[in-house]
Amino acid sequence: MKQYNLLIVDDEQRFANMLAKRLSLRGCHCEVCYNGQQALDLVKQKNFFLILLDLHLPDIYGIEVLTRIKAISEMTPVIILTGHGTEKDRRACMQQGAYAFWHKPLIIDELMAILARIEEMSL
Amino acid sequence: MIDRIRRAFGSIWPVFHRQDNKHLDPYFTFTNYGKIWAIGISVLVVTALVPLMVVTIIHYRLLQESVDSELTLRTERLTSNARRAVTFFLEERLDALRFTVNEIAYDRLTDPDHLAEILRNLKLGFGGLIDLSVIAHTGAQITYAGPFNLEGRDYSKQRWFIECQKRPFYVSEIFSGYRDVPHIIIAVKSFRPDGSFFIVRATLDTERLIKTLQSYETGAYAHIFLVNRSGIVQTPSKEHGEIFQKMSLPVPDFSERTQVTMAQNDKDQLLIVGYAYIFTRIADTPFILMAIKHKAEMMRVWQQLRSNINWFVGSGTLVILVVIFFTCTFMVNKLYHADRAKAETMALMEQSNQLATIGQLAAGVAHEINNPLALINETAGYVKDLFVFKEQYRRDEELIGYIDDILEAVERCGTITRQLLGFARKFEVKIQKVKLNEVISDVLVFHNKEADYRNIKVYVDVPQDMPPIETDRGKLQQILVNLVNNAFQAVDNGCILEIQASPAQADKVRITISDNGCGMPEENLPKVFEPFFTTKEGNKGTGLGLAITYGLVKKLQGDISVISKLGEGTTFIITLPARIQEEIIENEGSIGR
């Protein structure tokens, strides 16, 4: 299995860490950050296979982060993973080029399936 | 019975007496319409009828008084006239006798032939005399002229003679005396030169007096007769006592003038009694003239008038009452209907406000729960991962089972929060032309097997020529699936489910889904669309089905309402616009927002 390089952006630290651990067990390399600015810095430095982005971040709102990520690295797929998403958010995110808009809790097998599909498509 | 009367007099018996919708009560401006109605009627009745009654009573009194005084006056006149006649009758004869005694010497008076001639002359001149006699101071009759053979009688013990001795003139009451015929005696006392006195006595014909009296009896209801001062009837009286018997009325008080009083006879009839004590210029008499009239008979004409007035006032009052009743009922009914419409609107508004608030709350709760849920999910997932990825625990099915329980519970919570969010907002509406009969048959495909198995008859009634509507097919399907599911759960085997669609007013369509299942109690109806409200026992339902349906219908710019009766069935009525307005969707986003 290829080692996917993932970025998890979520202010809920325990959740983000736990998710990172689970994904690591499934052979992914995960970087975790807890606010928008850190995420943008990381995106500038590295190339990620996929980014999991929460909307409610302490510094920058998720949609803004998404827009900026897309400006830096347009091809990186971003999945919005939120506990508070509204219909309006969903529409805005999809417009900004989000790959999917998910509500927590996350079903990890679904994520794995998506990763596999993205890899297939990029090949 | 009462109900039938109420129906018959529907406009008099107001609808607001039927308290049908208890749950609307708090929204009414006025609570007691019966009271308003009663007060309105009372006030109108009092203001309309009191003046009428007062005027009528005053009129009665005036009428009564004027009639009374008129009756009194008339009776007084009659009595006076009769009195004058009687007085004149007696006076005339007394004067004649006095003239005779003064003019004719004692010797000639005691001569029987001469006395007979005097009698003849008096009869010619005045009439009404029967006989004439001269009586000595001893009471012995000296001379007699007349038809009865009374010569030589001794009157010394007779009452009239004793009375006669005391005064110069005397008028007796009517009595029978020796001759046994009712008569009146008038007598004049005169003195002879030697100082002894003698009395000239004349007997008067009572018949003539009676005729004179009767001539004054105008009409059938006046009775005129004489009584003496002890109340013994002297001349025939039709109904106030036999002759020489005590009069049935009390003896009236003495008065010099003619008097009129009221009295009651033994049959409780009101009588107008006119009376006059009769006395001549030169002598008192024992007579009282009585003129008696029945008031009722005198009043007959007046009573006719009064009964006419009564009829007029009575029918007028009835008309006023009916008008007041109809007007009051009409007005209060109008008020009631207006208030009821307002109450219904308010109840609906409150319900949808409540639902919107609940929707917001539910969405908020769902959002807040999602984060901790996610953490539980990931943590439990990680623990499971550790087990699954490590050889040591991979085969420990018990441990993995526990973790799976946690994950399953989290998943169920996740489903509920997703549904809750769905109640608050649903994803985009895709507008397309939809044929209602197609959608309904698509929905029923899912239920065919269950319907067969449970022997539930499903009738669909959609007019063939019904034009397709423009709406979101998926959501409409979802709405119908929810409602049909709901109905299937509510009915027993062998029941009937009916789905109807028809065009409604103002470019809308109406879809009704009715079952004849167990129904719902009235107090539950306002709550059925609230999230988590369920009547299903145990863990069968989340209580979100109808709440989501409500949200979906709102999303399609429609309305949903429910009618239900316990034990009779439930009907859901959905009204949808024939064409959905896109701008509104853009602005609304979701209900409760």
Short description:
Chain A is α/β, with parallel strands linked by helices. Chain A contains five helices and five strands, in the order βαβαβαβαβα. In chain A, helix 2 (36-45) packs parallel to helix 3 (62-72).
What does this structure look like?
- The complex is a heterodimer of chains A (123) and B (593).
- Chain A has 123 residues and is an alpha/beta fold.
- Chain A has one domain: Rossmann fold (3-Layer(aba) Sandwich).
- Chain A has five helices and five strands; from the N terminus they run βαβαβαβαβα.
- Chain A has helices at residues 13-25, 36-45, 62-72, 87-95, 108-122, and strands spanning 5-9, 29-33, 50-53, 78-82, 100-103.
- In chain A, strands 2-1-3-4-5 form a five-stranded parallel sheet, sandwiched between helices.
- Chain A starts with a strand and ends with a helix.
- Chain B folds into three domains: 66-298, Beta-Lactamase (2-Layer Sandwich); 324-424; 426-588, Heat Shock Protein 90, CATH 3.30.565.
- A five-stranded antiparallel sheet of chain B has the order 2-1-5-4-3, with helices on both faces. A five-stranded mixed sheet of chain B has the order 11-13-14-16-15, with helices on one face. Chain B has a four-stranded antiparallel sheet with strand order 6-9-8-7.
- In chain B, α2 runs antiparallel to α8, α11 crosses α13 (473-490) and α13 (473-490) packs antiparallel against α14.
- The chains are: A alpha/beta (123), B alpha+beta (593).
